From TrEMBL:
ATP-binding as UniProt keyword: no
Family: Belongs to the short-chain dehydrogenases/reductases (SDR) family.
Protein name from the UniProt record: L-xylulose reductase
Pfam families listed in its UniProt record: adh_short_C2 (PF13561)
Superkingdom, natural source: Eukaryota
Keyword check for NADP: yes
């Protein structure tokens, strides 16, 4: 999802910084989208991530898949500049829907939704808007691997009024709103 969001932001004319753990992923993205600013950083290394992000300069919009550490650094910069900004966390319907074999995923997305609410409360007075988007299963390669079995997918699909999983394009529509 993140890769496709980067592409769309560049199409809209946004100066776009893409973070990835691997240089290979960044190189292939840069080949597809020459306008990005690629930054290799292992988000598991919190201190190096902080140092790297602080060197990036001002960020007005964060579309966030990684969340806490990245949000802290970017939000701090937004507060210090005093010009506001926006943070959009990519969450999931799984934050409020129990899915079999998804204990870690569902609970982490539930935590992300609460983090989003607390961030909105704390950062709102600084004119920083914080929201999350919570699509159902987005049809990526990972989703295809996890949900291709019709027997497994049927109970979840039966709860979706449109009767289909979300396409990556649908996520962009949520971001645009």
């Amino acid at each position: 999802i993140g890769r496709d969001i980067v592409k769309r932001l560049v199409e809209y004319g946004a100066e776009t910084i893409a973070l990835s753990r691997t240089q290979t992923d960044l190189d292939s993205l840069k080949a597809e989208v020459p306008g990005i600013i690629p930054v290799q950083v292992d988000l598991g290394d919190w201190e190096n991530t902080r140092v790297t992000l602080q060197k990036l300069g001002p960020v007005d919009l964060l579309v966030n898949n990684a969340v806490f550490n990245v949000s802290q650094v970017i939000a701090k910069g937004m507060v210090e500049r005093g010009q506001g900004g926006a943070i959009v966390n990519i969450s999931s319907l799984a934050s409020s829907l129990a899915l079999e074999d998804h204990a870690a995923y569902c609970s982490s997305k539930g935590a992300l939704d609460m983090l989003t609410k607390v961030m909105a409360l704390e950062l709102g007075p600084h004119k920083i808007r914080v929201n999350s988007i919570n699509p159902t299963v987005v049809w990526t390669k990972m989703a295809e691997y996890a949900w291709s079995d019709p027997v497994k997918a049927k109970p979840l699909l039966s709860r979706i009024p449109m009767g289909k999983f979300v396409e990556v394009e649908d996520v962009f529509e949520l971001l645009e709103k």
